[in-house]
Write a structure and sequence with these properties.
Blueprint: E1 4-5, E2 11-17, E3 20-26, H1 29-45, H2 49-63, H3 68-81, H4 92-101, H5 107-128, H6 154-161, H7 167-178, H8 182-186, E4 193-194, E5 199-200
Antiparallel strand pairs: 1-2, 2-3, 4-5
């Protein structure tokens, strides 16, 4: 069907794709043609990468509900960076470019973001029939070596000890006196604290 103008002022074109007639509408001829191209592209490359990330997030949070803040931060970053990109068209160099763009964030942040992206493709391979994971061959920039962290100075420790009125202050004090990781502290429950023996049971 040739492009035609409808009575309502919109343009319409019917195209046969994979044996199925699909109608496209738009305010201009260009809009109609862009919709046709986008449709063909999606048929060829599958859903958007952001759609894969959304599915993976839902599945991940069912198994790890306490990691909501962690995974959503990385999924937001991935969705924004690859906005409009289809999951099948992304290559290892695209993810390497993401990590380069994340500089000067820490190596750990880049590594965690890489794990989330890779996890989404692993999920897609297991559930949606994807055949490859391009994140596996991506690289984090070498200039973000792991290195080591310096312990807090005596002055910094004393500054932390001065504050103990809010939940945020309590978090920092627990971290200071126990050396627990952030995730371990956030997962603590009242039953994990043995006040009789002055112990904290870290099980999550």
């Amino acid at each position: 069907m040739a492009l035609k103008k409808r009575k309502d002022g919109r343009y319409e074109k019917a195209v046969t794709i994979d044996g199925k007639v699909v109608h496209f509408y738009g305010k201009t001829q260009r809009e109609v043609n862009e919709k046709i191209m986008a449709y063909r592209r999606k048929k060829q490359n599958g859903p958007l990468f952001s759609e894969l990330l959304d599915e993976y997030e839902t599945q991940y949070l069912e198994e790890h509900p306490s990691n909501r803040r962690y995974i959503r931060a990385h999924i937001k970053r991935l969705s924004e960076f690859f906005k409009g990109k289809y999951r099948k068209e992304l290559k290892p160099k695209d993810f390497s470019g993401l990590f380069l763009a994340m500089y000067p964030l820490s190596y750990k942040t880049m590594s965690n973001c890489r794990m989330v992206a890779s996890g989404a493709y692993v999920y897609g391979m297991a559930v949606l029939g994807l055949t490859e994971n391009p994140v596996e061959l991506s690289r984090i920039p070498s200039f973000r070596s792991k290195g080591h962290r310096e312990p807090p100075t005596p002055e910094e420790i004393e500054k932390i000890k001065q504050y103990h009125d809010t939940e945020e202050d309590l978090f920092m004090l627990v971290r200071l006196y126990t050396g627990l990781r952030r995730g371990e502290i956030l997962a603590l429950q009242y039953k994990d604290v043995d006040r009789e023996h002055d112990l904290i049971n870290v099980t999550k």
